[in-house]
């Protein structure tokens, strides 16, 4: 076999391959690179033997170490639960929000857990900061439809509003126009009356016509002065806080079509401790009662 020629420019032997008058030099790979490459091959074989690696039809190879990240996570979660158990027990036994707030360590635990739970379960409807959206109550003000005590908030989280649970809180804003309880003119007058309750200008004649209608149809829930009733979940109509919107058009829509939003119940999805922590967090968002 004839010796390959030596490249005149570099002084390196060629392989004998040539493309478009470009000759391939026979430069071997650096020794350090080969050592690293062979080491990775040996490492991969050792890994296949020692660790879970090959999938099968009904499982996978366990490896000599029988290592499982799933089991490690389960063990870590169990250890964390055990570590938190004392705080959870204290939280459940707390009789009032003042007792929780007087214990900085317990309050910090409650707020951290509540914030995480809120982000996972509540922020979709109420917003990341609890600011709410039309039809979804704001939790950062001091207006509470069903009461803002810690017990009230826990009750709402436990059983929801119109959720279908046997213990849910329930009320109904009737569709006065759609169901024919009031005619169009009466709905218009009543909308003007509700606008006036919050101190805004409205047609005086419409207000006068609607006064007896409000007394007949609305005071049972909203009260004679329109300030609402938390026992029934009836909103205050005299403030500037509106669940669906406070302009005349939206108020008319509420009277004509009724309202009946749903909050799901969480008693079967969250533990007692989680609900308590979540209630403490929501209570703090709006400076609850």
Structure description:
This protein is mainly α. It folds into three domains: 14-48, no CATH class; 96-167 and 263-285, Cytochrome Bc1 Complex, Chain D, domain 2; 184-257, Cytochrome Bc1 Complex, Chain D, domain 2, CATH 1.10.760. The chain has helices at residues 31-50, 69-93, 97-101, 104-121, 123-126, 150-159, 184-197, 204-217, 219-222, 248-257, 272-285, and strands at 14-19, 22-25. Strands 1-2 form a two-stranded antiparallel sheet. α4 crosses α11, α6 crosses α11 and α7 packs across α10. The chain starts with 13 loop residues before the first strand and ends with a helix. The mean pLDDT is 91.
Share of residues in strands:
under 5%
**Main β-sheet description:** 2 strands, antiparallel
Order of helices and strands: EEHHHHHHHHHHH
CATH superfamily placement of the largest domain: Cytochrome c-like domain
What's the CATH topology name of the largest domain?
A: Cytochrome Bc1 Complex, Chain D, domain 2
The total of helices stands at: 11
| Radius of gyration based on Cα positions | 35 Å
Q: Could you give the distance between the termini?
A: 98 Å
Task: Provide the structure class.
Answer: mainly alpha
Weakly predicted, low-confidence segments: none
């Amino acid at each position: 076999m004839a010796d390959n020629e030596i490249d005149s420019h570099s002084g390196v032997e060629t392989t004998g391959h040539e493309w478009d008058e470009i000759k391939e030099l026979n430069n071997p790979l650096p020794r350090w690179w080969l050592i690293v490459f062979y080491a990775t091959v040996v490492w991969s074989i050792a890994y296949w033997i020692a660790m879970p690696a090959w999938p099968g039809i009904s499982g996978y190879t366990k490896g000599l170490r029988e290592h499982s990240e799933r089991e490690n996570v389960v063990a870590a979660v169990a250890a964390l639960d055990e570590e938190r158990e004392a705080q959870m027990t204290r939280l459940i036994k707390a009789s009032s929000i003042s007792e929780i707030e007087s214990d900085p360590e317990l309050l910090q635990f409650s707020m951290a857990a509540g914030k995480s739970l809120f982000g996972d379960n509540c922020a979709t409807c109420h917003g990341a900061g609890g600011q709410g959206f039309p039809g979804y109550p704001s939790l950062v003000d001091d207006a509470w439809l069903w009461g803002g005590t810690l017990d009230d908030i826990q009750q709402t989280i436990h059983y929801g509003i119109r959720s279908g649970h046997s213990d849910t809180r329930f009320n109904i804003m009737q569709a006065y126009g759609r169901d024919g309880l009031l005619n169009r003119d009466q709905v218009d007058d009543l909308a003007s009356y509700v606008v006036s309750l919050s101190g805004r200008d409205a047609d005086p004649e419409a207000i006068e016509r609607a006064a007896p209608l409000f007394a007949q149809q609305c005071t049972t829930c909203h009260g004679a002065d329109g300030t609402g009733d938390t026992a029934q979940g009836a909103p205050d109509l005299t403030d500037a806080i509106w669940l669906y919107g406070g302009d005349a058009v939206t108020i008319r829509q509420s009277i004509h079509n009724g309202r009946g939003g749903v909050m799901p119940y969480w008693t079967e999805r969250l533990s007692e401790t989680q609900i308590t922590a979540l209630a403490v967090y929501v209570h703090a968002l709006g400076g609850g009662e």
